[in-house]
UniProtKB/TrEMBL annotation:
Subunit record text: The basal body constitutes a major portion of the flagellar organelle and consists of four rings (L,P,S, and M) mounted on a central rod.
Record flagged with keyword Signal: yes
UniProt-listed NCBIfam families: PRK05303.1
Domain of life: Bacteria
Residues annotated as signal peptide: 1-19
Organism taxonomic ancestry: Bacteria, Pseudomonadati, Pseudomonadota, Alphaproteobacteria, Rhodospirillales
Keywords: Bacterial flagellum, Cell projection, Cilium, Flagellum, Periplasm, Signal
Protein name: Flagellar P-ring protein
Organism: Rhodovibrio sodomensis
Gene: flgI
Length: 371
Protein backbone atom coordinates (compact mmCIF):
# COMPACT_ATOMS: atom_id res chain seq x y z
CA UNK A 1 0.00 0.00 0.00
CA UNK A 2 2.85 2.32 0.84
CA UNK A 3 4.47 1.63 -2.53
CA UNK A 4 1.19 2.42 -4.34
CA UNK A 5 0.93 5.76 -2.55
CA UNK A 6 4.56 6.60 -3.43
CA UNK A 7 3.90 5.76 -7.08
CA UNK A 8 0.77 7.93 -7.14
CA UNK A 9 2.70 10.80 -5.55
CA UNK A 10 5.40 10.47 -8.22
CA UNK A 11 2.84 10.51 -11.04
CA UNK A 12 1.13 13.56 -9.60
CA UNK A 13 4.47 15.38 -9.36
CA UNK A 14 5.30 14.91 -13.07
CA UNK A 15 3.08 17.82 -14.26
CA UNK A 16 4.71 20.05 -11.66
CA UNK A 17 8.15 19.03 -12.91
CA UNK A 18 7.14 19.75 -16.51
CA UNK A 19 5.80 23.15 -15.48
CA UNK A 20 9.10 23.90 -13.77
CA UNK A 21 10.97 22.97 -16.95
CA UNK A 22 8.74 25.27 -19.02
CA UNK A 23 9.28 28.12 -16.57
CA UNK A 24 13.02 27.58 -16.72
CA UNK A 25 12.88 28.05 -20.50
CA UNK A 26 11.83 31.66 -20.01
CA UNK A 27 14.31 34.52 -20.06
CA UNK A 28 14.65 37.55 -17.82
CA UNK A 29 13.79 40.95 -19.26
CA UNK A 30 17.33 42.17 -18.54
CA UNK A 31 18.71 39.43 -20.81
CA UNK A 32 16.56 40.22 -23.86
CA UNK A 33 16.46 44.03 -23.83
CA UNK A 34 18.81 46.96 -23.45
CA UNK A 35 18.00 50.45 -22.25
CA UNK A 36 18.07 53.11 -24.92
CA UNK A 37 21.05 55.42 -24.35
CA UNK A 38 22.81 53.04 -21.97
CA UNK A 39 25.65 51.75 -24.13
CA UNK A 40 29.40 51.44 -24.46
CA UNK A 41 31.49 54.08 -26.22
CA UNK A 42 34.48 53.22 -28.40
CA UNK A 43 37.84 54.87 -27.62
CA UNK A 44 41.00 54.85 -29.74
CA UNK A 45 44.54 56.16 -29.41
CA UNK A 46 48.03 55.96 -30.86
CA UNK A 47 51.01 55.13 -28.67
CA UNK A 48 54.43 53.57 -28.32
CA UNK A 49 55.40 50.29 -26.70
CA UNK A 50 58.99 50.23 -25.39
CA UNK A 51 61.18 47.60 -23.77
CA UNK A 52 60.94 45.01 -26.53
CA UNK A 53 63.80 42.55 -26.86
CA UNK A 54 64.75 43.40 -30.45
CA UNK A 55 61.27 42.53 -31.75
CA UNK A 56 60.07 46.08 -32.36
CA UNK A 57 59.68 48.13 -35.53
CA UNK A 58 62.47 48.69 -38.02
CA UNK A 59 62.78 52.49 -37.92
CA UNK A 60 63.87 52.53 -41.56
CA UNK A 61 60.66 50.80 -42.70
CA UNK A 62 58.35 52.49 -40.18
CA UNK A 63 58.83 56.28 -40.42
CA UNK A 64 55.83 56.95 -38.16
CA UNK A 65 57.56 55.04 -35.36
CA UNK A 66 60.74 57.05 -35.83
CA UNK A 67 58.92 60.40 -35.81
CA UNK A 68 56.85 59.40 -32.76
CA UNK A 69 59.99 58.35 -30.89
CA UNK A 70 61.77 61.63 -31.73
CA UNK A 71 58.71 63.65 -30.68
CA UNK A 72 58.42 61.80 -27.37
CA UNK A 73 62.13 62.34 -26.58
CA UNK A 74 61.84 66.06 -27.40
CA UNK A 75 58.93 66.44 -24.98
CA UNK A 76 61.16 64.88 -22.33
CA UNK A 77 64.00 67.34 -23.11
CA UNK A 78 66.12 65.08 -25.32
CA UNK A 79 67.03 66.35 -28.79
CA UNK A 80 67.27 63.31 -31.10
CA UNK A 81 66.23 64.94 -34.36
CA UNK A 82 69.66 64.67 -36.00
CA UNK A 83 70.62 61.39 -34.34
CA UNK A 84 70.96 58.13 -36.24
CA UNK A 85 68.35 56.08 -34.39
CA UNK A 86 68.64 52.36 -34.99
CA UNK A 87 66.76 50.77 -32.11
CA UNK A 88 64.45 47.79 -32.51
CA UNK A 89 63.01 47.91 -29.01
CA UNK A 90 60.15 50.31 -29.84
CA UNK A 91 56.86 49.60 -31.65
CA UNK A 92 54.03 51.88 -32.73
CA UNK A 93 50.63 50.56 -31.69
CA UNK A 94 46.97 51.40 -31.97
CA UNK A 95 45.26 51.39 -28.59
CA UNK A 96 41.54 50.61 -28.37
CA UNK A 97 39.13 50.41 -25.45
CA UNK A 98 35.42 50.31 -24.69
CA UNK A 99 34.11 52.80 -22.13
CA UNK A 100 31.13 51.18 -20.35
CA UNK A 101 28.18 53.33 -19.29
CA UNK A 102 28.17 55.07 -15.89
CA UNK A 103 31.95 54.91 -15.49
CA UNK A 104 33.15 57.62 -13.11
CA UNK A 105 36.39 59.60 -13.16
CA UNK A 106 39.21 57.54 -11.67
CA UNK A 107 37.76 54.11 -12.52
CA UNK A 108 39.78 51.71 -14.68
CA UNK A 109 38.95 49.97 -17.95
CA UNK A 110 40.66 47.28 -20.05
CA UNK A 111 42.75 48.22 -23.08
CA UNK A 112 43.85 46.35 -26.23
CA UNK A 113 46.97 47.16 -28.27
CA UNK A 114 47.86 46.13 -31.84
CA UNK A 115 51.13 46.68 -33.68
CA UNK A 116 51.15 49.06 -36.65
CA UNK A 117 54.61 48.52 -38.13
CA UNK A 118 57.00 45.66 -38.66
CA UNK A 119 57.20 44.57 -35.03
CA UNK A 120 57.49 40.82 -34.54
CA UNK A 121 56.22 40.64 -30.97
CA UNK A 122 54.98 42.89 -28.16
CA UNK A 123 56.01 40.39 -25.48
CA UNK A 124 57.62 42.11 -22.50
CA UNK A 125 56.81 45.63 -23.72
CA UNK A 126 55.38 48.58 -21.79
CA UNK A 127 52.86 51.01 -23.22
CA UNK A 128 53.74 54.66 -22.60
CA UNK A 129 51.13 57.25 -21.64
CA UNK A 130 48.50 57.22 -24.41
CA UNK A 131 45.39 59.45 -24.51
CA UNK A 132 42.25 57.63 -25.67
CA UNK A 133 39.84 59.69 -27.74
CA UNK A 134 36.12 59.34 -28.36
CA UNK A 135 34.21 59.99 -31.59
CA UNK A 136 33.99 63.69 -30.66
CA UNK A 137 37.78 64.03 -30.39
CA UNK A 138 37.74 64.48 -26.60
CA UNK A 139 40.08 62.56 -24.28
CA UNK A 140 38.07 60.20 -22.06
CA UNK A 141 40.83 57.95 -20.68
CA UNK A 142 44.60 57.62 -20.47
CA UNK A 143 46.35 54.25 -20.84
CA UNK A 144 49.76 53.06 -19.65
CA UNK A 145 51.31 49.88 -18.33
CA UNK A 146 52.86 46.50 -19.18
CA UNK A 147 51.45 44.64 -22.18
CA UNK A 148 50.20 41.08 -21.85
CA UNK A 149 51.01 39.70 -25.31
CA UNK A 150 48.56 37.28 -26.91
CA UNK A 151 51.26 34.80 -27.97
CA UNK A 152 54.93 34.29 -28.71
CA UNK A 153 57.21 33.56 -31.63
CA UNK A 154 60.53 31.69 -31.56
CA UNK A 155 62.71 30.01 -34.12
CA UNK A 156 65.93 29.95 -36.11
CA UNK A 157 67.12 29.72 -39.69
CA UNK A 158 65.35 26.45 -40.49
CA UNK A 159 62.19 26.56 -38.39
CA UNK A 160 59.98 29.02 -36.56
CA UNK A 161 57.18 28.41 -34.08
CA UNK A 162 54.43 30.96 -33.49
CA UNK A 163 51.64 30.61 -30.94
CA UNK A 164 48.70 32.95 -30.97
CA UNK A 165 49.14 36.52 -32.21
CA UNK A 166 52.28 38.02 -30.64
CA UNK A 167 51.70 41.43 -32.27
CA UNK A 168 48.64 42.17 -30.16
CA UNK A 169 48.02 42.22 -26.44
CA UNK A 170 45.92 43.55 -23.59
CA UNK A 171 46.33 45.74 -20.54
CA UNK A 172 43.81 44.60 -17.92
CA UNK A 173 42.62 47.72 -16.09
CA UNK A 174 45.29 49.54 -18.06
CA UNK A 175 43.46 52.86 -18.57
CA UNK A 176 42.10 55.42 -16.11
CA UNK A 177 38.88 57.27 -16.97
CA UNK A 178 39.50 61.03 -17.09
CA UNK A 179 36.11 62.24 -18.31
CA UNK A 180 32.58 60.98 -17.73
CA UNK A 181 29.82 60.66 -20.31
CA UNK A 182 26.80 62.47 -18.93
CA UNK A 183 23.62 60.37 -18.74
CA UNK A 184 21.12 61.00 -15.93
CA UNK A 185 18.92 57.90 -15.85
CA UNK A 186 17.33 58.68 -12.49
CA UNK A 187 15.83 61.96 -13.73
CA UNK A 188 14.05 60.46 -16.77
CA UNK A 189 10.24 60.14 -16.73
CA UNK A 190 10.18 57.52 -19.49
CA UNK A 191 12.59 54.91 -20.80
CA UNK A 192 12.68 52.93 -24.04
CA UNK A 193 13.57 49.24 -23.84
CA UNK A 194 15.19 47.97 -27.04
CA UNK A 195 14.84 44.27 -27.87
CA UNK A 196 18.09 42.59 -28.90
CA UNK A 197 16.07 40.35 -31.26
CA UNK A 198 13.06 42.39 -32.46
CA UNK A 199 9.79 40.50 -32.45
CA UNK A 200 6.15 41.65 -32.17
CA UNK A 201 5.11 38.81 -29.87
CA UNK A 202 8.05 39.18 -27.51
CA UNK A 203 7.58 42.96 -27.26
CA UNK A 204 3.90 42.48 -26.39
CA UNK A 205 4.74 39.85 -23.76
CA UNK A 206 7.32 42.16 -22.15
CA UNK A 207 4.78 44.98 -21.88
CA UNK A 208 2.13 42.63 -20.46
CA UNK A 209 4.53 41.17 -17.88
CA UNK A 210 5.53 44.65 -16.66
CA UNK A 211 1.93 45.85 -16.42
CA UNK A 212 0.85 42.74 -14.48
CA UNK A 213 3.74 43.15 -12.05
CA UNK A 214 3.24 46.88 -11.41
CA UNK A 215 -0.56 46.87 -11.52
CA UNK A 216 -0.48 49.90 -13.83
CA UNK A 217 -0.32 50.49 -17.57
CA UNK A 218 3.30 51.63 -17.49
CA UNK A 219 4.59 49.68 -20.49
CA UNK A 220 3.53 49.91 -24.13
CA UNK A 221 4.96 48.02 -27.10
CA UNK A 222 5.57 50.61 -29.82
CA UNK A 223 7.04 48.29 -32.46
CA UNK A 224 8.80 44.90 -32.59
CA UNK A 225 12.03 46.47 -31.31
CA UNK A 226 10.83 49.00 -28.71
CA UNK A 227 8.84 48.95 -25.47
CA UNK A 228 8.11 52.35 -23.90
CA UNK A 229 8.24 52.40 -20.10
CA UNK A 230 6.74 55.31 -18.13
CA UNK A 231 7.75 56.11 -14.57
CA UNK A 232 4.63 56.21 -12.42
CA UNK A 233 2.51 54.42 -9.85
CA UNK A 234 4.54 53.72 -6.72
CA UNK A 235 7.82 54.41 -8.51
CA UNK A 236 9.44 57.83 -8.34
CA UNK A 237 12.53 57.09 -10.45
CA UNK A 238 13.40 55.06 -13.52
CA UNK A 239 16.23 53.36 -11.64
CA UNK A 240 13.90 51.80 -9.07
CA UNK A 241 11.42 50.70 -11.74
CA UNK A 242 14.09 49.09 -13.90
CA UNK A 243 15.59 47.30 -10.89
CA UNK A 244 12.25 45.65 -10.13
CA UNK A 245 11.19 44.63 -13.64
CA UNK A 246 14.51 43.38 -15.02
CA UNK A 247 14.10 40.05 -13.21
CA UNK A 248 10.62 39.33 -14.62
CA UNK A 249 10.53 36.13 -16.73
CA UNK A 250 9.24 36.38 -20.30
CA UNK A 251 8.81 33.64 -22.88
CA UNK A 252 10.78 34.73 -25.93
CA UNK A 253 9.27 34.00 -29.32
CA UNK A 254 11.47 33.43 -32.34
CA UNK A 255 10.76 33.20 -36.06
CA UNK A 256 11.09 29.96 -37.99
CA UNK A 257 14.51 30.46 -39.51
CA UNK A 258 17.36 28.40 -40.91
CA UNK A 259 20.82 29.97 -40.91
CA UNK A 260 23.35 28.54 -43.36
CA UNK A 261 27.06 29.30 -43.54
CA UNK A 262 28.15 27.80 -46.85
CA UNK A 263 31.83 28.54 -46.25
CA UNK A 264 32.01 26.22 -43.22
CA UNK A 265 29.01 23.98 -43.87
CA UNK A 266 27.30 25.09 -40.65
CA UNK A 267 23.51 24.81 -40.42
CA UNK A 268 21.40 26.12 -37.53
CA UNK A 269 17.64 25.50 -37.51
CA UNK A 270 15.08 27.01 -35.15
CA UNK A 271 12.63 24.82 -33.28
CA UNK A 272 9.58 26.20 -35.16
CA UNK A 273 10.76 25.13 -38.61
CA UNK A 274 8.05 23.08 -40.31
CA UNK A 275 8.01 21.12 -43.58
CA UNK A 276 5.01 20.32 -45.78
CA UNK A 277 4.71 16.88 -47.33
CA UNK A 278 7.58 16.50 -49.76
CA UNK A 279 9.64 13.68 -51.29
CA UNK A 280 13.42 13.96 -51.03
CA UNK A 281 16.08 11.97 -52.85
CA UNK A 282 19.78 12.53 -52.46
CA UNK A 283 22.44 11.06 -54.72
CA UNK A 284 26.09 11.59 -55.47
CA UNK A 285 27.75 11.44 -58.86
CA UNK A 286 31.51 10.87 -58.73
CA UNK A 287 33.73 11.08 -61.80
CA UNK A 288 37.25 9.75 -61.20
CA UNK A 289 39.94 10.33 -63.85
CA UNK A 290 43.26 8.53 -63.41
CA UNK A 291 46.29 9.23 -65.58
CA UNK A 292 48.80 6.34 -65.90
CA UNK A 293 51.17 7.27 -68.74
CA UNK A 294 53.40 4.50 -70.09
CA UNK A 295 56.82 4.67 -71.73
CA UNK A 296 57.22 2.96 -75.12
CA UNK A 297 60.73 2.36 -76.37
CA UNK A 298 62.34 0.19 -79.08
CA UNK A 299 63.79 -3.19 -78.25
CA UNK A 300 67.47 -3.79 -77.50
CA UNK A 301 69.85 -3.28 -80.43
CA UNK A 302 67.00 -1.98 -82.66
CA UNK A 303 68.18 -0.06 -85.72
CA UNK A 304 65.27 2.41 -85.67
CA UNK A 305 62.74 3.75 -83.23
CA UNK A 306 62.55 6.23 -80.38
CA UNK A 307 61.34 6.38 -76.84
CA UNK A 308 57.93 8.09 -76.40
CA UNK A 309 55.41 8.55 -73.63
CA UNK A 310 52.04 6.97 -74.40
CA UNK A 311 49.14 8.50 -72.42
CA UNK A 312 46.77 6.14 -70.63
CA UNK A 313 43.58 7.63 -69.14
CA UNK A 314 41.08 5.68 -67.03
CA UNK A 315 37.66 7.28 -66.47
CA UNK A 316 35.29 5.85 -63.82
CA UNK A 317 31.78 7.10 -63.12
CA UNK A 318 30.10 6.15 -59.85
CA UNK A 319 26.58 6.93 -58.73
CA UNK A 320 25.72 6.66 -55.06
CA UNK A 321 24.33 3.18 -54.44
CA UNK A 322 21.52 2.56 -52.06
CA UNK A 323 20.18 6.10 -52.32
CA UNK A 324 16.44 6.24 -52.26
CA UNK A 325 13.62 8.74 -52.20
CA UNK A 326 12.07 9.42 -48.83
CA UNK A 327 8.76 11.12 -48.08
CA UNK A 328 8.87 13.77 -45.38
CA UNK A 329 5.33 14.11 -43.96
CA UNK A 330 3.61 17.42 -43.37
CA UNK A 331 4.19 19.34 -40.14
CA UNK A 332 7.19 17.39 -38.93
CA UNK A 333 9.17 18.85 -36.06
CA UNK A 334 12.81 19.88 -36.14
CA UNK A 335 13.94 16.62 -34.54
CA UNK A 336 11.97 14.52 -37.03
CA UNK A 337 13.36 16.51 -39.95
CA UNK A 338 16.94 16.03 -38.80
CA UNK A 339 16.40 12.33 -38.13
CA UNK A 340 14.85 11.82 -41.56
CA UNK A 341 17.68 13.56 -43.41
CA UNK A 342 20.28 11.71 -41.36
CA UNK A 343 18.62 8.45 -42.34
CA UNK A 344 19.36 9.31 -45.97
CA UNK A 345 23.03 9.68 -45.11
CA UNK A 346 23.03 13.36 -45.95
CA UNK A 347 26.13 15.36 -45.02
CA UNK A 348 26.17 19.08 -44.20
CA UNK A 349 27.05 20.16 -47.73
CA UNK A 350 24.28 18.08 -49.32
CA UNK A 351 21.86 19.14 -46.56
CA UNK A 352 22.34 22.79 -47.55
CA UNK A 353 21.34 22.00 -51.12
CA UNK A 354 18.34 19.92 -49.97
CA UNK A 355 17.03 22.66 -47.66
CA UNK A 356 17.34 25.27 -50.39
CA UNK A 357 15.54 22.97 -52.84
CA UNK A 358 12.71 22.33 -50.35
CA UNK A 359 12.36 26.09 -49.85
CA UNK A 360 12.28 26.65 -53.62
CA UNK A 361 9.52 24.02 -53.88
CA UNK A 362 7.40 26.03 -51.42
CA UNK A 363 7.31 23.16 -48.91
CA UNK A 364 9.20 24.88 -46.10
CA UNK A 365 7.52 27.24 -43.66
CA UNK A 366 10.69 29.01 -42.59
CA UNK A 367 13.11 31.69 -43.65
CA UNK A 368 16.53 30.69 -44.96
CA UNK A 369 19.31 33.13 -44.17
CA UNK A 370 22.69 32.58 -45.82
CA UNK A 371 25.66 34.22 -44.11
Amino acid sequence: MTRVRALLALLLSIPLLLAAVDAGAQSRIKDIVQIEGVRDNMLVGYGLVVGLNGTGDDLGDSPFTRESLIGMLQRLGVNARDADLDTENVAAVMVTASLPPFQRVGSRIDVSVSALGSAESLLGGTLLVTPLLGADGEVYAVAQGPVNAGGFSAGGDAQQVTKGVPTSGRLPSGAIVEKEIAFELAGMDRVHLQLRNPDFTTARRIASAINRFTGNELATSLDPATVRLKVGGTYESATALLADIEQLPVEVDQPARIVIDESTGTIVMGQDVRISTVAVAQGNLTVRITETPQVSQPGPFAQQGQTVVVPRTDVEIEEGEGNRMAVVPSGVTLNQLVEGLNALGVGPRDLIAILQAIKAAGAMQAEIKVI
